């Protein structure tokens, strides 16, 4: 059995049948299994059981940078830690990713969820994703449009039937610092350098979010729900302080953390799990948690929010049982 406790940031004591460290594409050519999943740090996953298959641990850490037509083309190995890459680029005068500072996980995990923070989504800055097809054993390139980036989703998340191992992510970044400051907490300030902006974002995140190295968690557990204009204004009529933001086709995006807090679920504890005292959107392992406790608490929160607001929350974390990735509705 392969110990997965170090490869899921919830810190759950779960195992896989087997595990392989992948450091290059050559390692992938040797992989022949019908049942495998790919992990970096496991910062966006929840294992509900031991996995009866092989886990591929992405440790591809190549990096090349090219200045072309005034843009920096950054080809980053998927096993690199995203925040460490951002720190390196900012110090080199290569800009665009600063708002994603301290987002946990690897470069390869970022496009799957199209991770975002403080008004920036990683898909905005990706020009290409390179994958290795474990079924056909070929390398394939996905240009930006083919990646189908959306809110916390992508082609790679939507097509789970394809066994695609992300080996490299290509970013198109700038040599000029042009800060994105639309998000609350940033708009009121001025930043002379990208490092100043990065440090401020790290400060904000540390105030609200627990360090996975100290408290087991997978970051934001739920997506911010997108609802109709009518639903949003129905809620705001009763709760004037409701945070709401424009979404596509006239819909509105609501703050899941606010909904959870108003439903009485901020800082609660059920068994060995709970929600974080400073950010209700985060479910934490308070010590010795079992997978079923996290599932039960998440379902409780979803029920409480729906009963209060008639809004359905959708988990952001990817969920795996003994046979592989499973939809939340099937748990």
Question: How would you portray this structure in words?
Answer:
- The protein is an alpha+beta fold.
- It is built from 8 helices and 21 strands.
- It has helices spanning 25-29, 82-91, 110-113, 155-158, 194-208, 229-238, 256-262, 291-309, and strands spanning 2-3, 15-22, 36-39, 45-47, 51-58, 63-68, 71-77, 116-117, 120-121, 126-133, 138-143, 164-174, 216-220, 226-227, 244-246, 252-254, 269-270, 273-275, 282-285, 318-321, 324-325.
- The chain has a 5-stranded antiparallel β-sheet, with no helix packed on it.
- The protein starts with a strand and ends in a 6-residue tail after the last strand.
- The model has no long low-confidence stretch (mean pLDDT 95).
What can be said about this structure in brief?
It contains 8 helices and 21 strands. It is α+β, with helices and mostly antiparallel strands. The two termini are 24 Å apart.
Low-confidence runs: none
**Overall mean pLDDT score?**
95
The DSSP helix count reads: 8
**Got a strand count?**
21
- Proportion of β residues? 25-35%
The percent range for helix content is 10-25%
Radius of gyration, in Å, reads 20 Å
Shape by Cα distribution: globular
- Largest sheet, if any? 5 strands, antiparallel
Strand and helix layout:
Elements: E1 2-3, E2 15-22, H1 25-29, E3 36-39, E4 45-47, E5 51-58, E6 63-68, E7 71-77, H2 82-91, H3 110-113, E8 116-117, E9 120-121, E10 126-133, E11 138-143, H4 155-158, E12 164-174, H5 194-208, E13 216-220, E14 226-227, H6 229-238, E15 244-246, E16 252-254, H7 256-262, E17 269-270, E18 273-275, E19 282-285, H8 291-309, E20 318-321, E21 324-325
Parallel strand pairs: 2-5, 3-5, 4-20
Antiparallel strand pairs: 1-2, 6-7, 7-12, 8-9, 10-11, 10-12, 13-19, 14-16, 15-16, 17-18, 18-19, 20-21
């Amino acid at each position: 059995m392969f110990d997965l406790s170090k490869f899921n940031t919830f810190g759950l004591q779960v195992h896989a049948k087997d595990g392989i460290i992948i450091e290059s594409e050559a390692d992938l050519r040797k992989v022949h299994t019908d049942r495998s999943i790919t992990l970096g740090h496991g910062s966006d996953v929840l294992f509900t059981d031991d996995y009866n298959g092989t886990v591929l641990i992405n440790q591809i850490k190549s990096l090349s940078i090219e200045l072309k037509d005034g843009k920096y083309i950054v080809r980053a190995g998927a096993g690199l830690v995203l925040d460490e890459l951002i720190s390196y680029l900012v110090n080199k005068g290569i800009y665009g990713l600063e708002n994603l500072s301290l987002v946990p996980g690897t470069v390869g995990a970022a496009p799957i969820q199209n991770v975002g923070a403080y008004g920036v989504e990683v898909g905005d800055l990706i020009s290409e994703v390179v994958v290795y097809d474990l079924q056909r054993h070929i390398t394939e390139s996905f240009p930006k449009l083919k990646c189908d980036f959306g809110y916390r989703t992508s082609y790679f998340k939507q097509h789970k039937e394809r066994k695609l191992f992300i080996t490299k992510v290509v970013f198109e970044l700038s040599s000029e610092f042009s800060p994105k400051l639309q998000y609350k907490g940033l708009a009121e300030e001025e930043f002379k350098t990208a490092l100043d902006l990065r440090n401020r974002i790290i400060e904000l995140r540390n105030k609200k979010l627990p360090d996975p190295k100290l408290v087991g968690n997978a970051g934001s557990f739920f997506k911010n729900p997108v609802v109709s204009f009518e639903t949003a204004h129905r809620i705001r009529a009763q709760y004037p302080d409701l945070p709401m933001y424009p979404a596509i086709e006239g819909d509105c995006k609501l703050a899941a953390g606010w909904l959870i807090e108003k439903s009485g679920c901020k800082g609660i504890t059920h068994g060995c799990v709970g929600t974080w005292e400073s950010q209700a959107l985060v479910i934490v392992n308070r010590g010795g948690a079992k997978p079923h406790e996290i599932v039960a608490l998440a379902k409780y929160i979803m029920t409480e929010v729906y009963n209060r607001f008639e809004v359905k929350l959708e988990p952001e974390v990817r969920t795996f049982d003994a046979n592989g990735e499973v939809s939340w509705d099937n748990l």
